[in-house]
Amino acid sequence: MKKPPLARAERDLIRAEKLIELYEPFILHNEHVFECENARLLSAARPPEERPALRLRAGIDRLVGLRINVHIPALRRWCYPLMEGRPLESARAACA
Q1: How far, in Å, CA of 66 to CA of 73, rounded?
Q2: Rounded Cα distance, 17 and 23, in Å
Q3: Choosing a second label site near 73 at 20 to 30 A (CA), which of 7, 66, 81, 87?
Q4: Which sign does the torsion angle of CA 53, 58, 60, 64 carry?
Q5: What is the chain's alpha carbon radius of gyration, rounded to the nearest angstrom?
Q6: pLDDT the model gives residue 76
Q7: Which helix (H) or strand (E) holds 17?
Q8: Secondary structure string (H, E, C) spanning 47-78
Q9: pTM for this one?
Q10: Cα-Cα-Cα-Cα dihedral sign, residues 72, 76, 77, 80
């Protein structure tokens, strides 16, 4: 027997609603202001020969890399399968 033609669209809509509900606090219910003025002041107060040791841009790049290389793959491996009703990988396969 075939499923009704809108069954897949309804399943996709339910999945999207679950994702929106999951991430809603991070998207809508916050007013975070990220600034690094204190780090800039600290950098300016250091002797000129020590200033290259504190690189703000490198810190930002590391955070972006952490998000892309660690956080998102972890969501794909551990969270998305649960939300989609798929089994998780075994712990041994996940560590390989």
Answers
A1: 10
A2: 10
A3: 7
A4: negative
A5: 22
A6: 86
A7: helix 7-27
A8: CHHHHHHCCHHHHHHHHHHHHHHHHHHHHHHH
A9: 0.36
A10: positive
